[in-house]
Design a protein that fits this description.
single chain, about 220 residues, mainly beta, Lipoxygenase-1, six-stranded mixed β-sheet, six-stranded antiparallel β-sheet, 3 helices, globular, Stress/Tellurium_Resist
């Protein structure tokens, strides 16, 4: 049975305190969320005539070295009329969905959050990950949240979970928005890090007002 974590709690991903072991050859980090139902009250007035509004929350992974830094910022490439930065570097995000090692990738970019279960998934082959990487930080940001006046106070049932290769859920950290998250447009949800030959999972839940993960990234350069 998966462990429901609280903020700051850390667990061993390889086996739990009941002796249950997990296959870390491929671990799915799943992230999900729902947008609070609109009504005729404050939110109804806020959103207008009851039309559904799309929320585009993006999952991002920072691969950090032993110094807690991103060693490879990737390169800039041109796609169509746009320049794409940080391509094939140590940041996995919607414009660079697969790490050049092939051991971590984003399965897709869900732009609405519609549907049950994981809305976005990042898959990591932890057993194959180079020793050059000591920690993976998982961040979720609301795309253009500032411009669209969207924030985590309007999001509920948000979670991050770790699932092993066989489909067993190892741990889950849930976070439902309330007034304390008003104006919060991104969140450092959790991290996976090496410890004593194994991998640990830590629930972080650190809020940020910026809607750009690049701003958060500056702390790791």
């Amino acid at each position: 049975m998966a462990i429901n974590l609280v903020k700051g709690q850390t667990i061993d991903l390889r086996k739990n305190d009941k002796g249950e072991s997990f296959d870390l050859s491929s671990v799915t980090i799943g992230l999900g969320w729902d947008v609070k139902q609109k009504n005729g009250g404050f939110l109804g007035k806020l959103f207008g005539s009851g039309e559904e509004e799309e929320y585009d929350l993006d999952a991002i992974a920072f691969l950090l070295n032993a110094e807690g830094k991103i060693a490879n910022m990737g390169r800039t490439v041109q796609k169509g009329n746009h320049n794409i930065s940080m391509f094939e570097g140590d940041v996995v995000y919607f414009n660079s969905m697969q790490h050049p090692s092939g051991n971590i990738w984003l399965t897709g970019d869900n732009r609405t959050g519609a549907g049950d279960g994981d809305d976005e998934q990042i898959i990591v082959k932890l057993n194959n990950l180079s020793p050059a990487y000591d920690r993976i930080l998982f961040v979720v940001a609301i795309y253009q949240g500032k411009k669209n006046h969207q924030h985590f106070g309007m999001v509920e049932n948000a979670f991050i979970r770790a699932v092993d290769r066989t489909g067993k859920e190892i741990a889950r950290y849930s976070l439902s928005g309330d007034a304390t998250f008003n104006g919060i447009c991104s969140m450092t949800f959790a991290e996976v890090y090496r410890k004593d030959g194994s991998w640990k999972f830590r629930a972080i839940g650190e809020p940020h007002s910026t809607d750009s993960f690049v701003d958060i990234l500056q702390n790791y350069r």
